[in-house]
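Fold this sequence, please.
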Amino acid sequence: MKESDIRKYAQLMKELELTGLEITENDQVVRLERSVTAAPIVPAVSAVSAEPAPAPVQETNEGVSVTSPIVGLFYAAPAENAEPYVALGDRVKKGQTLCIVEAMKLMNEITAECDGVIEKICAANGQMVEYGTELFRIRR
C-alpha cells in the first residue's frame, strides 16, 4: 500500500472521528489507530440517558446562559415530528427538559438549572454544538 493511500485513510479517520481503521488490500493488512483526547468517551449503554446532563450555567446581565456540557447534535424536540420541548417566551421550572444533545448515539437531556422565561434560543434543530456553546438564555 502506498504512503499516499495511508495518508488519505488517516485523513478520513480524522474527518469521521474514527479511532481505528483496518484495511485489507492484496493480502496486506494495515491497521490505523489514533487516540482522542478532546472529549471523554462515554459508553453507549442505552438510547436515552437515564439521568439528564447538567448544563453549565452562566449568569449575565441579560439572564442565565445555558450552555452545552458536551459536543454533539442539538435537538429541540424528543422526535422528528414532535413539538419542541420549549419555545421562546415559555416559562420553565428548574429541572425541566429544554433540549437533547446527541453524542455518540447517546441522547443527553439538557435541563433548566433555574426557574425563568426562555428569552433566547441560540441553537437550531440538528445543529452541531461544541462544549460551552450557548443553547438558551433564561430570564429569571
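The CA atoms of residues 65 and 89 lie 15 Å apart. The chain is about 10% helix and 40% strand.
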